[in-house]
Amino acid sequence: MAVTTMIGAKIHRREDPRLVSGEGRYVDDFTRPGTIFLSVVRSPYAHARIKSMDVTQATKAPGVVAVYTHKDFAKVLSGTMPVTPSFVAEKKQNPPRFPIADKEVVYQGEPVAVVLAETKYQASDAGNMIDVDYEQLPAVMDLEKALEENSPKVHSGASDNVGWDLTYIPDDAAVMKEADVVVKQRILQQRLAPTSMETRGVLAEYSKPDGTLTVWMSSQSPHFVRLFLAGAMGIPETRIRVISPDVGGGFGAKISPYSEDWLVPAAAKLTGRPVKWIESRTESLQTTTHGRGQIFDVEAGVKKDGTLVFMKVTQYLDAGAYLGTFSAFQSCACLLAGGAYNWKHVSSRTVGVLTNRVPTDPYRGAGRPEATHLCERMIDLLADGIKMDPAALRRKNFISEFPHQNHFGLTFDSGNYEKALAMALEMVGYEKLRHEQEEGRKKGRYLGIGLSSWIEICGFGPSAGTAPATGGIALVESAQVRVFPTGSVAVYVGTHSHGQGHDTTFPQIVADTLGVPYDMIEMRHGDTAEGPAFGYGTYGSRSLAVGGMAVHKASKKVVDKARKLAAHVFEAAEEDVVFDQGHFYVKGSPDKRKAFGEIAFAAYGAGLPEGMEQGLEAVAYFDPPNFVWPFGTHVAVVEVDTETGDVDLKRYIAVDDCGNIINPMIVDGQVHGGVAQGIAQALYEEVVYDDESGQLKTGSLVDYLVPTANEFPEFELGRTITPSPTNELGVKGIGEAGTIASSVAVINAVCDALRPLGIKHVDMPASPDRVWKMIHNARNASHDGHDGKEARK
Amino acid sequence: MIPAAFEYARAASIDEAAKLLDKYGEDAKVLAGGHSLIPLMRLRLAQPSALVDINGIKGLDYIKVEGSKVHVGALTRHVEIQNSDAIKDKLPILAEVAGEVGDNQVRNMGTIGGVVAHADAAGDYPTIALILDADIVTNKRSIPAKDFFKDLFTTPLAANEIVTEVVFPVADGPHKYIKFRRRLFDWAIVGAAAQKMNGGWRIGLTNVGPTPVRAKAVEEALHKGAKPEEASQHASDGLNPSGDLRASPEYKKHLARVLTRRAIEQSA
Questions:
Q1: What is the pLDDT of residues A25-35, one digit of tens each?
Q2: What is the average per-residue pLDDT within A42-53?
Q3: Which of A644, A702, A764, A770 to mutate to test the interface with B (most CBs of B within 10 A)?
Q4: How confident is the model at residue A784 (pLDDT cuts 50, 70, 90)?
Q5: Which of A597, A622, A647 is where one domain is finished?
Q6: pLDDT per residue as tens digits for the range A263-284
Q7: What is the mean pLDDT of chain A?
Q8: ipTM
Q9: B50 DSSP β-pair partners
Q10: Which among B183, B247, B258 has CB closest to A643?
Q11: How far is A50 from chain B (nearest CA, A)?
């Protein structure tokens, strides 16, 4: 195989043999001598005052080493859990949060005590012996109720439940009057539980003699964990090592730090024993941050000829009991609400609301699925309003000139939206399907076709934009490339893989850049003791467009030095040295070539050019000039059984453009997983709390409906390639694309199917009972002589 | 996800299992396939003091056709029922139902005796046992299905009584079981069974109340010559299902009617 064609090669993921044969190493696979186990005692109530706590029985239970509560942790931990500005610099209310409750609990599952014991069984049993005397307080579970003046306050003593209220761009009444047809719609984004296969987990070991702390944690951002631990525990970063080994999925929920991320290391310091905690599935559903949880009130207007005029968006975001580290990130839905289209005006406002539920934080797509969902829903409603084909309305209004600056000052780098739409329509056989739909309706068959022309901002991000959003640290990315004397290469990258295939993709880039065989490249990540001083982690589809570029940049620094050395060896001018297929030679003399490995060997020898140091390695930090902007069009085809309300997803077409491709198989895999997760939101998943008691009702995977491969048709994938001008590789991101696009493709299809019944909008999940109820109500309404408008429950 | 402490004993015979149950008392549970019991224990919704494992008992795993009866041993796994030629021939609805239970792992481990003894309202076999007038045989007696499923998770089984087999009549006429659910491996939101037998119809419903339901009003209407769509309107007569996350009571009653009609119409 020619070594310079690894970029774009459809090669198998080198991590898969390990992962699929059960040889992966996750946090729970690590144990240190003398490890004890931690069990967290959690509030059973959504809101209560802790009157007293009796730990006597638990302390005496078999195998128990220690029982710790707030007062114990207050001795070794300081500060509060971090909340970043994200897209809302000024918060109205940001309740301080310590990793363990003191006097008041504000959501079900909040930690109140921990038990440490010789076995996890003993820890769990003893946890049940802790007697907490709670005084229940009124809880507010519902986002809208939380905004009412007389509602209970999430935190006692607070004056309201508003976390933030920010208008990005106000309405323009004059522009709004230009529309011929205006539609209004409330669109719900239910709470979702990220549900990675590997739950969270922490193992911590504190070495008293040298004051070092080693932490194994299932995390997307080990360097940030080190930073936070250093601050809270007063240990220099140099004495903390955080290792995120194989991570079995994160989906955004393993970016922000959690209570246990501090409690476990602190308990290790307090007891002097290595401490392990592995989250149970119920704890995961109850206490790992949830995604979405928003209400959008949207109004949009169009001219009769199909020219889009305005969109007005108000987002109400259920932040939960505390602001999450990145809860205001999801406000980006307001900045992207205009989607792929030219509008004369877009106005938006975000309101963050506290409720007595677990905090929300990023979940695959994080604000962008919400933006796509509301925009693409409104496009379909507008198309219906002016009786225009939804594909035609999209085509008429697509942004077609790039770079394009949207109303909020964001610059779309490149795109060809029409091409992706055309390919998707061709693949699905749009005209023929519309005909089939028409024929089917005559026979009582309700087929629906749903489009989603999506865009995405990702590749976080340029330092100028991201440093203010995190409160100081720019979300650039680092990499180190080390070439050993024989030409073997080790690559360290500050981003992290929790399933995306970095072990394969990044060496593909290095192989091409250095001309070194792929198999000679070792990929390392997830250990703060290795590689550059700081790494930024994985989120926001950034690993390739930012991390991959850091790898590319570090590789190029290595090549530059090797070229200088080669010129010296050849006694030629540097500009006359050609580097091709992993070999150096002087222009015109390809026969007298030297392999990259030979130059590497020479780099560790004598007789280097004047001023050149030995060694062949480089560190690079890549600061992208812009975000990257993937796009595409997805089409869902459904048939609704109007008797039962059951939605049968018959076909799913995804045409995505993420710029240049490093490994097509990995891109396909990302699309598959992403699409599945978006369909899951559209049809299956929903976190449900009891409004009265504040109890989580979906506390197991029996009740929280994660679909499986059985529930999906075979996805039909297509691809267009529009390189990104933002980076030298021309790449964008693909990790979240499927999720961003798919929920609304399915819901638009369901709405399309039900249009003859007078149903214009269906909220998620479009479960059979919900859909049946809407059909039932619509039919009753039309029987009663009403206009057939749906009745919302 | 960590169960409370419990004793464990593995029995080699029914007698030994019964003695172990006597020894451990009322809080002991029999462990067969464990695919309902173990999840409940992990969530500490069940905290038995002891498990008496009967998987080591030989001779409880069989399918025998004797005259007009089909005998299915209590330890017969779903996958064996699903794939049995004898069942497919003499009691095809049971093979159909077995193939719809859970996923491969559940079908490889779960047993008919376990499902019946557990008496979950969402269990599929109990509906079939009820409408076919099967007998539940234990180490002490034989109990007609209509007297067995008394309430949610409630049967007449004594603390030391173990289900040993289920005896069904041969029923090889047209039949259909429709299991309406969200995911392929889920329990039924509502299930409907139709079986043509001895010239009449047997109609049953799953998960529309605390126990399986035999829809006698539908059977009678069909007997009087009503068409399936008319007869199936009676499927919800007398039902008072409780609502849950997947279905309101009203929706369950509606599904009972729709699925009953479809089960009759699709019976083959």
A1: 999 999 999 99
A2: 98
A3: A644
A4: low
A5: A622
A6: 999 999 999 999 999 999 999 9
A7: 96
A8: 0.96
A9: B7, B28
A10: B258
A11: 25
DSSP letters for A599-652:
HHHHHTSS-PPTTPPS--EEEEEE--SS-B--EEEEEEEEEEETTTTEEEEEEE
Q: In terms of CA atoms, which chain B residue is nearest residue A711?
A: B183
Query: Which pLDDT score is estimated for B1?
Result: 66
Instruction: Please give the average per-residue pLDDT across A579-593, as a whole number.
Output: 93
- Copy the structure tokens of residue A446: 């309700």
Question: Distance between CA A346 and CA A339 in Å, rounded?
Answer: 10
CA–CA separation, A44 vs A202, rounded Å? 23
Q: Is A333 within the bounds of a domain?
A: no
Residue A506 and residue A591 in one domain: yes
Write out the two tokens for A380: 């379909």
Q: Are residues A607 and A650 in the same domain?
A: no
- Render pLDDT for A87-131 as a digit per residue (tens, 0 to 9): 999 999 999 999 999 999 999 999 999 999 999 999 999 999 999
Q: Say if the Cβ atoms of A707 and B183 lie within 8 Å.
A: yes
E strand or H helix at A374: helix A368-385
Beta strands, E only, chain B: 7-10, 28-31, 50-53, 63-66, 69-73, 135-138, 142-144, 163-169, 175-180, 190-197, 200-206, 213-214
Domain that holds residue A555: 3-20+477-622
Helix (H, G, I), strand (E, B) or coil at B34: coil
Q: Are residues A677 and A618 in the same domain?
A: no
Predicted confidence at residue A454, as pLDDT, reads 98
Q: In this predicted model, what pLDDT tens digit does every residue of B31-56 receive, in sequence order?
A: 999 999 999 999 899 999 999 999 99
Tokens of residue A589, six digits: 């003399």
Helix (H) or strand (E) holding A713: none
Quote the pLDDT of residue A793. Answer: 34
Domains of chain B: 7-53 (3.30.43.10), 63-169 (3.30.465.10), 175-266 (3.30.390.50)
Token pair 């996958």 is found at: B79
How open is the CA angle A738-A199-B45, to the nearest 5 degrees?
A: 120
* In the block, residue with structure tokens 């004495």: A239
Interface test with A, best of B44, B245, B250, B259 (most A CBs within 10 A): B245
Report CB contact under 8 Å: B246, A767: yes
CB B31 within 8 A of CB B53: yes
- Residue A589 neighbours by CB under 8 Å, 6+ apart: none
Tokens linked to B237: 């007569």
* Confidence class for position A789, pLDDT limits 50, 70, 90: very low
Query: Which pLDDT value is given to residue B186?
Result: 95
- Cα gap A639→A336, rounded to integer Å: 30
Mean pLDDT across B199-226: 97
**How far is the C-alpha of A444 from the C-alpha of A576, rounded, in Å?**
75
Choose among A2, A16, A4: nearest CA to A669. Answer: A16
Q: What CATH number does residue A507 fall under?
A: 3.30.365.10
B245 vs A121: CB contact, 8 Å cut-off? no
pLDDT at A785 over 80: no
Average pLDDT for residues A383-404, to the nearest whole number? 98
Q: Are residues A618 and A712 in the same domain?
A: no
Partnered with residue A68 across adjacent β-strands are: A114
Q: At what angle do helices A502-514 and A549-570 cross, to 10 degrees?
A: 30
Examine the domain organization and report whether A606 and A569 are in the same domain: yes
In this structure, what token pair is assigned to residue A36? Answer: 């004890």
Strands A131-136 and A617-622: unpaired
**In chain A, how many domains are there?**
2
What average pLDDT does range A666-682 have in this prediction?
98
The stretch A635-657 carries a mean pLDDT of 98
Question: What whole-number distance in Å separates Cα of residue A789 and Cα of residue A780?
Answer: 11
Q: Which tokens belong to A67?
A: 């029982």
Contact A282 B43 (CB under 8 A): yes
Distance (Å) from the alpha carbon of B186 to chain A's nearest alpha carbon: 8
B131 is written with which tokens?
A: 């409408």
pLDDT at residue A4 greater than cutoff 70: no
Instruction: Return d(Cα A343, Cα A336) in angstroms, integer.
Output: 12
